[in-house]
Each structure stands twice: as structure tokens, then as C-alpha cells.
């Protein structure tokens, strides 16, 4: 799971991007954080789907 600090940093960078823009270093950090978040989401979603059982 992505920590609360990382989620807050993702949101902070998104707000800054909309208001004043990001430096190249911040853009790279944002991309890495987003990638980590997406991978975590996919893994959790896949695990959730694998737990689903259909019954007749």
C-alpha cells in the first residue's frame, strides 16, 4: 500500500503543477510516485478479483 505521506506528496505536486508548474526534478518525482501508486492499485485490484467466487 502507498503510504499517506506519498499520497499527500502526489496531491501536493498535482496542485503545484496546476498553479505554478513543476521543475524537471519534480516532474520525475511525480511520475515515479504515480507509477508506484498505479502498480499498487493494480496489484490490490487483481488480488480482489482473484478472491471473487461465482456460485450457481
Write out key terms for the chains shown.
single chain, 56 residues, mainly alpha, Helix Hairpins, 2 helices
Topology:
Elements: H1 4-19, H2 24-51
Short description:
The protein has 56 residues and is mostly helical. Helices cover 79% and strands 0% of the residues.
Task: Write down the Rg.
Answer: 16 Å
- Averaging pLDDT over every residue, what do you get? 95
Which structural class matches the secondary elements? mainly alpha
CATH topology label: Helix Hairpins
Strand content: under 5%
Number of helices: 2
Number of strands: 0
- Report the CATH architecture: Orthogonal Bundle
Question: What profile does the largest beta sheet have?
Answer: none
Describe the structure.
The chain is an all-alpha fold and 56 residues long. The protein has a single domain (4-51), classed as Helix hairpin bin (Helix Hairpins), CATH 1.10.287. The protein has helices at residues 4-19, 24-51. Helix 1 (4-19) packs across helix 2 (24-51). The radius of gyration is 16 Å and the shape is elongated. The model has no long low-confidence stretch (mean pLDDT 95).
Amino acid at each position: 500500500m502507498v503510504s499517506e505521506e506519498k499520497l499527500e506528496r502526489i496531491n501536493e505536486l498535482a496542485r503545484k503543477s496546476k498553479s505554478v508548474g513543476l521543475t524537471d526534478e519534480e516532474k520525475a518525482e511525480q511520475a515515479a510516485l504515480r507509477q508506484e501508486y498505479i502498480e499498487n492499485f493494480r496489484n490490490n485490484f487483481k488480488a480482489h478479483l482473484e478472491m471473487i467466487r461465482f456460485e450457481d
